[in-house]
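User: Design a sequence. Structure:
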């Protein structure tokens, strides 16, 4: 009977949704609408025959407009916005025009867009900050959003321009593809570059794909997966173009006559410096692409120029560099035909710790039919007579797999004095813990149940994650003993974030009126760890408020499992903390005797290194 009740409680927790919580001028709290399939502003059905159009001197055929409309429809068939509101539209190149409110420099750079290939595509904007209108429908509260694009011949938004040598006739750029660079991604970007298996995902592994740090995920389709139709330029080409552009930039964004003379002399000096590398490929660090006339003014002997790649200690070749490119001559003309020269599917992740953004990411990866789209444009006989179908239903939700409870769960549930017990035995390894709210870390991952080496049974792995017990009966008993087992990974980084257990009284979900916080961090190489006990009980006056630091005995990082048992006792007004039965702290007048807690969570937000993992299990609350 107890087992049936337990599984029923799990089912209730899985199927129930939090009520949307609105904050004035901001919108609904993201976590309160995270599980709601809000959907689209409008489902676009293009029933009329497409018509061509002209923008400036650019002509877009009916076929190209029709492709853009298909992109919209394919997006909406592949993705249902969850926790956000979607709007899908199609577009063509932004035609550069002189803007009287822009600077001369800004206008000059904008005009370089005239050299770009013909572009057409579709855009989905997902609005995350929402309110409800008079009819009770979700509508945008602000203009903020994330984006998903499908575009033919896109270049500008996936490249870094080298504007100094560019012109309305020729666009020079670098493609920031760290995945193909020998240096690879910086350590801080590696986790994001493989969000949900992006780097080797089965649906895109055939195609060129890469992550642009702090910007977007990019997948590029070309016929037979050929290289993009770009040419690498030489160092000689660069300086030849720079010499042509020097007087142009003097007119656009002038320096003094004296400084312009310096710029010309320094250009001559640089040509001489790189004479032996004249026919070598021009490569730059991303931080060096935004060259200005002032860079040539400053390029005196000993000054770091656009091709230098040294660290602060003078060591050469320390950072990734990328070849300076231009579009092949024939490509711009070919882009005007109905055959795309390449297709770009890209999407942004501005809030990787929010469910709406992760849902967009995994929907594109798992639902969007990249192979059909490739064949539609580059091998049409393969899909002749076939309509687009997503690889997976956009409404797909992974069912929570509940496994049978352990004997320990059954035994503890049969004891009337055991108020709560959790050993995560009802969750399959590799899955999110059943009965717990999980939040995404900055890496886009969540806490999962695992079987760590050296530890028996199921444990929740926390690496920058937060979990909150949703099956906790409320409120807790007035007097109780809370215990949990805590493990730290071997070689846990000294100085990384500790694990904070918070037992609180919340006035609403996430809003703690009062609390006990115990943060534990392992020591180094066998030394004791650190414990921080923080309390907040402001009413009535006279009870414990503030933080104190203690030693966490025998909690270090030198063993495979580094396991301890943490115990917190609340008896009337007294609070005691034990680690492996050793008393660490005791407050005699800590908590009002009648105080009742109603929320339990664990948090180690901020950690990301593979070694900086905590494991928790066997959480027990005994009524005293």
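Assistant: Done.
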């Amino acid at each position: 009977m107890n087992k049936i009740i337990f599984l029923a409680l799990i089912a209730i927790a899985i199927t129930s949704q939090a009520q949307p919580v609105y904050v004035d001028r901001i919108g609904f709290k993201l976590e309160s609408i995270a599980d709601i399939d809000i959907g689209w502003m409008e489902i676009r059905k293009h029933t009329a025959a497409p018509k061509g159009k002209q923008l400036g001197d650019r002509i877009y055929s009916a076929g190209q407009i029709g492709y853009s409309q298909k992109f919209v429809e394919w997006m909406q068939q592949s993705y249902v916005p969850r926790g956000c509101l979607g709007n899908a539209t199609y577009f063509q190149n932004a035609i550069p025009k002189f803007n009287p409110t822009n600077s001369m420099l800004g206008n000059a750079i904008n005009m370089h867009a005239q050299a770009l290939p013909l572009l057409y595509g579709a855009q989905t904007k997902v609005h995350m900050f929402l309110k409800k209108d008079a009819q009770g429908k979700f509508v945008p509260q602000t203009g903020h959003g994330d984006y998903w694009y499908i575009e033919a011949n896109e270049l500008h938004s996936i490249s870094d321009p080298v504007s100094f040598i560019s012109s309305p006739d020729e666009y020079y750029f670098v493609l920031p593809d760290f995945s193909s660079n020998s240096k690879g991604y910086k350590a801080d970007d590696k986790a994001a570059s493989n969000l949900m298996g992006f780097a080797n995902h089965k649906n895109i592994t055939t195609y060129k794909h890469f992550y642009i740090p702090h910007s977007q995920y990019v997948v590029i389709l070309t016929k037979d997966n050929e290289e993009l139709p770009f040419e690498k330029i030489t160092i000689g080409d660069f300086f030849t173009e720079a010499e042509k552009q020097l007087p142009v930039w003097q007119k656009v964004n002038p320096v003094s006559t004296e400084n312009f003379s310096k710029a010309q002399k320094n250009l001559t000096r640089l040509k001489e410096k790189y004479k032996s590398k004249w026919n070598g490929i021009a490569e730059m660090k991303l931080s060096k692409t935004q060259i200005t006339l002032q860079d040539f003014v400053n390029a005196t002997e000993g000054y770091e120029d656009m091709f230098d790649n040294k660290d602060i200690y003078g060591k050469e070749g320390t950072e990734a560099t990328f070849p300076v490119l231009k579009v092949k001559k024939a490509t711009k003309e070919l882009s005007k035909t109905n055959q795309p020269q390449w297709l770009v599917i890209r999407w942004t992740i501005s809030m990787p710790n929010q469910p709406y953004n992760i849902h967009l990411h995994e929907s594109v990866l798992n639902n969007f039919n990249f192979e059909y789209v490739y064949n539609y444009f580059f091998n049409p006989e393969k899909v002749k007579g076939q309509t687009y179908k997503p690889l997976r239903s956009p409404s797909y939700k992974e069912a929570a797999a509940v496994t049978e409870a352990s004997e320990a769960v059954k035994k503890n549930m049969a004891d009337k004095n055991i108020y709560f017990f959790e050993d995560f035995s009802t969750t399959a390894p590799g899955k999110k813990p059943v009965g717990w709210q999980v939040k995404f870390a900055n890496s886009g991952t969540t806490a999962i149940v695992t079987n760590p080496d050296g530890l028996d049974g199921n444990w929740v792995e926390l690496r920058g994650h937060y979990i909150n017990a949703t099956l906790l009966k409320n409120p807790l008993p007035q007097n109780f003993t809370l215990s949990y087992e805590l493990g730290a990974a071997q070689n846990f980084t000294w100085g990384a974030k500790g694990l904070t257990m918070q037992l609180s009284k919340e006035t609403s979900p996430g809003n703690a009126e009062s609390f006990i916080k115990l943060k534990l961090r392992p020591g180094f190489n066998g030394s004791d760890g650190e414990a921080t006990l923080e309390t907040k009980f402001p009413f009535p006056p006279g009870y414990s408020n503030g933080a104190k630091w203690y030693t966490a005995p025998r909690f270090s990082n030198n063993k495979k499992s580094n396991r301890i048992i943490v115990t917190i006792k609340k008896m009337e007004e007294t609070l005691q903390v034990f680690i492996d039965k050793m008393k660490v702290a005791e407050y005699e007048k800590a908590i009002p005797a009648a105080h009742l807690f109603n929320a339990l969570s664990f948090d180690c937000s901020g950690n990301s290194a593979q070694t900086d993992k905590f494991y928790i299990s066997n959480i027990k609350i005994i009524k005293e």
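Residues 407-623 form a domain with the Jelly Rolls fold (CATH 2.60.120.200). The chain is about 20% helix and 30% strand.
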